[in-house]
Amino acid sequence: MSETPALSRGDEYVVFYNGGPYNGQSDTRISTDGSWDDEVTVIAAVDGKETQLVYINPSAHQVGEQVQVTYSWDEPDSDPLEALDERNDD
User: Fold this and answer.
1) CA quadruple 42, 52, 75, 24: dihedral positive or negative?
2) Which carries the bigger pLDDT value, residue 55 or residue 90?
3) Looking at the DSSP assignment, which residues form a beta bridge with residue 30?
4) CB-based contacts of 40: which residues, under 8 Å, 6+ apart?
5) Which residues, in sequence order, are bridge partners of residue 12?
6) Could you tell me the CA-to-CA distances from 43 to 4, 10, 14 in Å, in that order?
């Protein structure tokens, strides 16, 4: 059984996105309270329109000195993708 990785306030960790339009992307975040976020919201351009993508269910593991956290796309809580061309954001 593996141990839960430890972070201190101010430590960097790497985020990997699984699913949705941000699938396969990564990001670096800084821990503000000694842990990683329970949920991450990403503002992304999809077909030229900005949309909010919600990622949840963090799964963390330690690789060498680096903490890596993978998040899964939460489609129901994200902005709908199929109706982006019908949105009136202008």
Assistant:
1) negative
2) 55
3) 12
4) 15, 17, 29, 54, 55, 56, 71
5) 30
6) 29, 23, 18
